[in-house]
Amino acid sequence: MTVGKPVNLIVRFMIPMCLGNIFQQLYNLADSIVAGQFIGVDALAAIGGTSSLMFFVTGWLNGLASGFAILVAQCFGAKKLERMRHFVAMSVYLMTAFSIIMTVGFEAANRPILRLMNSPENLIGDISAYMGVIYAGLFVTAAYNFLAAVLRALGDSKSPLYFLMISAAINVLLDIVLIVNFHMGVEGCAYATVIAQGISAALCLLYIVKKFPILHLRKENFHFSIQSIKKLLGLGIPMGLQFSITAIGTIIVQGAVNVYGAVYIAGFSAASKLQNIIAAVFVSFGATAATFVGQNRGAGKMERVKQGVRCTQWMILGWSFVMMVCVYLFGKYMVLLFTDGSETKVIYAAVTYFKAVAWCYPFLGCIFLYRNALQGMGYGLIPMLGGVFELVARTGIILLVSGKTGFIGVCLADPAAWIAALIPLVPFYFYIMKKKITVTV
């Protein structure tokens, strides 16, 4: 990432990462499609009701892993390989501890959380069963996210893609087998997801062992260092909190949607899952920016940082406008993946959401770019502050419209949040680029 034309490097790195993110989205997407087509609207609504919670727990782990991997990328760019291996070893301690604590805590609070979210009584049993399995499998989720983040930090975005393709195919197959043949309902979808993620994690580990000798850890790498732990947490926690703060906002929105009943939950779920596929490109550009910026900052090439962010900005805007047109013209047909054409109310709810948010896709894309660019340079506080602005905006809209408007009022919480998140991110990015402020690895 430190040599060559930035645009070429970014595109080549981003494409396999994007495909990988899309396949990762297919885990939950496949669950919803199979449940909606083979079980019905209530099953689609039940799995849809887990989306914000899934984002909360997996987002925290993904944020931690991404934060830890920034130090790996910086050390790799600075050619400090022994220090890089030490950070990897300390990250293993942290990811293991967080996954155990989260599993125990969320299993204990499963149903109380769902009741706080206004989950319909007729769906709460299915939702709690689904999430119970997901919580039990958080260790494999943590393992995959961390191993994939380390590979990407070293510039390998293709291998995680291949492993995700394999596990996504297995997930779809298991969904069909467990639901259609074994009649396990939505709980079967959760088992399929955890098993598939476990396979992708195992494949990542085997690949690292065979192909990346610079990541082979020795006993001395695991020597516990409070200073290193603090440095990792200094990046990991803000990134994890950033994901979690955003997820809390989506949980609040989900709670407001739940009041409208299963039909609107199903429509909102279908639209959100399709939008997640669209946003996977933004996520990939952002993650690419973090690696590009991290390696070049580590090498002291701040002018390349500026060039990389600038060309990524133009690509994000292009994708935004293409997707705006697609959603407005073809959104209702996309929803038919999840439900029968006779479910007109479900389709109407999904289309209503698309019309409320699609115009704001350029702002959504910019969040991922500037947030990840700042994180790649080692700044964690301001990106987290962007998440706080996002949460405040979402909560404010929900409080303002709750019980006073129809479903579309709730949908407007997302555009408000995306715009608000940029308020601290963009000015701070241009400030540090003008001042050329850097941090040491």
TrEMBL record:
<keyword id="KW-0472">Membrane</keyword>
<dbReference type="GO" id="GO:0015297">
    <property type="term" value="F:antiporter activity"/>
</dbReference>
<dbReference type="InterPro" id="IPR002528">
    <property type="entry name" value="MATE_fam"/>
</dbReference>
<feature type="transmembrane region" description="Helical">
    <location>
        <begin position="190"/>
        <end position="209"/>
    </location>
</feature>
<dbReference type="GO" id="GO:0005886">
    <property type="term" value="C:plasma membrane"/>
</dbReference>
<feature type="transmembrane region" description="Helical">
    <location>
        <begin position="53"/>
        <end position="76"/>
    </location>
</feature>
<dbReference type="Pfam" id="PF01554">
    <property type="entry name" value="MatE"/>
</dbReference>
<dbReference type="GO" id="GO:0042910">
    <property type="term" value="F:xenobiotic transmembrane transporter activity"/>
</dbReference>
<dbReference type="InterPro" id="IPR052031">
    <property type="entry name" value="Membrane_Transporter-Flippase"/>
</dbReference>
<feature type="transmembrane region" description="Helical">
    <location>
        <begin position="382"/>
        <end position="401"/>
    </location>
</feature>
<feature type="transmembrane region" description="Helical">
    <location>
        <begin position="88"/>
        <end position="109"/>
    </location>
</feature>
<feature type="transmembrane region" description="Helical">
    <location>
        <begin position="129"/>
        <end position="154"/>
    </location>
</feature>
<feature type="transmembrane region" description="Helical">
    <location>
        <begin position="232"/>
        <end position="257"/>
    </location>
</feature>
<keyword id="KW-0812">Transmembrane</keyword>
<protein>
    <submittedName>
        <fullName>MATE family efflux transporter</fullName>
    </submittedName>
</protein>
<keyword id="KW-1003">Cell membrane</keyword>
<keyword id="KW-0813">Transport</keyword>
<feature type="transmembrane region" description="Helical">
    <location>
        <begin position="277"/>
        <end position="294"/>
    </location>
</feature>
<feature type="transmembrane region" description="Helical">
    <location>
        <begin position="407"/>
        <end position="432"/>
    </location>
</feature>
<dbReference type="InterPro" id="IPR048279">
    <property type="entry name" value="MdtK-like"/>
</dbReference>
<keyword id="KW-1133">Transmembrane helix</keyword>
<feature type="transmembrane region" description="Helical">
    <location>
        <begin position="347"/>
        <end position="370"/>
    </location>
</feature>
<feature type="transmembrane region" description="Helical">
    <location>
        <begin position="161"/>
        <end position="184"/>
    </location>
</feature>
<feature type="transmembrane region" description="Helical">
    <location>
        <begin position="314"/>
        <end position="335"/>
    </location>
</feature>
